[in-house]
Amino acid sequence: MEIRVEQGDVTTISADAVVVNLFEGVTAPGGATGALDTAIAGAISRLISLGDLRGKGGELTSIYTDGKVVSPRAFVVGLGKNADFDYDSIRNLSANLVRSLRKPGIKTVATIAHGAGIGGLDPHLCARAIAEGAVMGSYRFTKFKGAEKKDDDETGIDTLIIVESDAGRLDALRAGAAEGAILGEATNLTRDLANTPANHLTPTMLANVAADVAKAGGLEFEVLEEADAERKGMGSFLSVTRGSIEPGKMIRMSYKAKPGEGYDLALVGKGITFDTGGISIKPAANMDAMKADMTGAASIIGAMKAIAALKPNVNVVGIAPLTENMPGGRATKPGDVVTAMNGKTIEVLNTDAEGRLVLADAVCWANELGAKRILDVATLTGAVTTALGDVCYGLMTNNDEFATAFEGAATTAGEKTWRLPMFKEYDELIKSDIADIKNIGTGNRGAGTIVGAKFIERFVADTPWIHLDIAGVDNMSSDKGWVSKGASGMSVRPMVHLALSLAD
Ligand code: BES
Ligand code: ZN
Ligand code: ZN
User: Fold this and answer.
1) Ligand 1 atom showing the smallest separation from residue 350 Cα
2) pLDDT for position 151
3) Does 178 have pLDDT greater than 70?
4) In the prediction, which pLDDT does 293 show?
5) pLDDT for residue 147 is more than 90
6) pLDDT band (50, 70, 90) for residue 84
């Protein structure tokens, strides 16, 4: 989708549809909505007095303009109550709008900058939310629709024009729209990867995608093959790769705005391209969902793509351990003891708790590379869904200040996180009888999500660290605002905002 900002007004702009808005309770529309109302002989005011148009949030009213303005159709979107209106509302209404306008005759849509008028919000951020919403709301995964592809699969708008009469606002709107498109497209890349079946996205193929993203964005790229991982002592990562005939890869994508300086931030993502559970094999029902067990890695790749495009003055390294978790003949067996890169020994009591095993060596590598902060993101535990559902994702940390910075970044992106405690008492749960630690908690003592975090914490040393468990939000059952059905792409934009916030 092309998104551009044009100076002009909704009555004269050439488009298949123009979009204006109305706050709840407004009876005499002003601004662009008022100008359009006048041009179409009071049609909007009449709908308001009839009670058909009330400006409620989510309301979308179509009006045929009968040749009175250039565009044949106008839409009035309800903004809801002015007091409740914010950038999240804009992002969601923009997404809902592009979804509603998925009609064969609507290709070019011109909209006013919702929120920047009587909403009183910052034009830059309004345009960013509009662009993000439009790009993420128009997302569909149709790559594998072949002969039975429906006409509908091809339908969707291809040009969105933000129209603004005030010349003084154009630069801010343009900058915001460009940022929003970058953030939205990065999220859609992550969604595409997470939605792709495992036979079309092996560790090798995912590494190749990351290499392409790195090349296009001017990032440094490195792959540790299994032999390299062996030399580095990554026995924990290799304990998972050995069950599969597909070679595992540990990838690194580096963005360096300040050459010669260290990394301000490492983003580390779990990249299990399919999780069968290994020898501790999962039940058959819904096992297909485990093609998305590389969502953490996909989120890192999306975030690095956006960071490369936005060019903040900060150094960021993205790391992802990529492997299948399979029960092959050489697979790790429950009870095996392996040694991670930092020398810690791990008793693998359940091979289905593999995410923490691959992340252990990945965060060790981030530390070896000298990262000042580490954030890892993973579809780590089913338990996080029990705790938080699909409303927010779990955040665990060893550093309050760093966590607060991420929470701010998530809020900026319209995503919700919730902290789970990291009391030292939980460390008891991963004590092993025969090794330094074990990879699952003791008996029936619960706290599965925290146990996963406690395990990873042993490998981050003293580095400020955040662990995000996104297993509850990685996949959504229906479209809702900017969230599209299937892979949600959550965590991508917050990670980018976090990187931007660390820039000096
Ligand atoms: N990939 C799963 C976690 C998961 C479950 C993600 C459901 C998305 C949806 C992870 O590797 C796993 O199997 N975790 C186990 C850990 C347990 C063995 C300690 C779990 O959550 O059951
Ligand atoms: Zn697993
Ligand atoms: Zn897993």
Assistant:
1) 18
2) 66
3) yes
4) 98
5) no
6) very high
CA pair distance 96, 25, nearest whole angstrom? 22
DSSP one-letter string for 413-448: HT--EEE----GGGGGGGB-SSSSEESS-STT---H
Catalytic residue among 356, 438, 454, 458: 356
Residues paired with residue 418 on neighbouring β-strands, in sequence order: 394
Average pLDDT for 269-297: 98
Measure the CA–CA gap between 266 and 297, rounded to whole angstroms.
13
**Of 427, 268, 279, 440, which Cα lies nearest the Cα of 353?**
440
Name residues whose C-beta falls within 8 Å of residue 11's C-beta, 6 or more positions apart in sequence: 35, 36, 39, 69, 70
Ligand 1: centre distance to CA 353 (Å): 6
Q: How far apart are CA 257 and CA 143, in angstroms?
A: 35
Q: In the structure encoding, which two tokens stand for residue 117, read together?
A: 């008028």
pLDDT at 410 over 90: yes
Least Cα distance to 317 among 237, 273, 262 occurs for 262
Of the residues 103, 282, 344, 416, which is catalytic?
282
Query: Cα(303) to centroid of ligand 3, in Å?
Result: 21
Segment 236-243 mean pLDDT: 99
Task: Decide if 356 is catalytic.
Answer: yes
CB 381 within 8 A of CB 469: yes
CA–CA gap between residue 391 and residue 401 (Å, rounded): 24
pLDDT per position as a tens digit, 102-119: 999 999 999 999 999 888
How far is 3 from 18, CA to CA, in rounded Å?
14
List the structure tokens of 229. 């991982």
Q: What is the reported pLDDT for 504?
A: 82
Among candidate residues 105, 202, 118, 121, the one with its CA nearest the CA of residue 157: 105
Ligand 1 atom at minimal distance to the Cα of residue 440:
19
Q: In one letter, which amino acid is 219?
A: L
CB 109 within 8 A of CB 500: no
Q: What are phi and psi of 146, to 5 degrees?
A: -105, -115
Structure confidence at residue 443 (pLDDT): 87
What's the CA gap between 191 and 173, in Å, rounded?
27
**What is the pLDDT, as a whole number, of residue 445?**
81
What percent of the chain has a predicted confidence (pLDDT) above 70? 99
User: What is the predicted pLDDT for the residue at 149?
Assistant: 73
CA distance 225 to 285: 33
Which residue, 57, 61, 62, is CA-closest to 82? 57
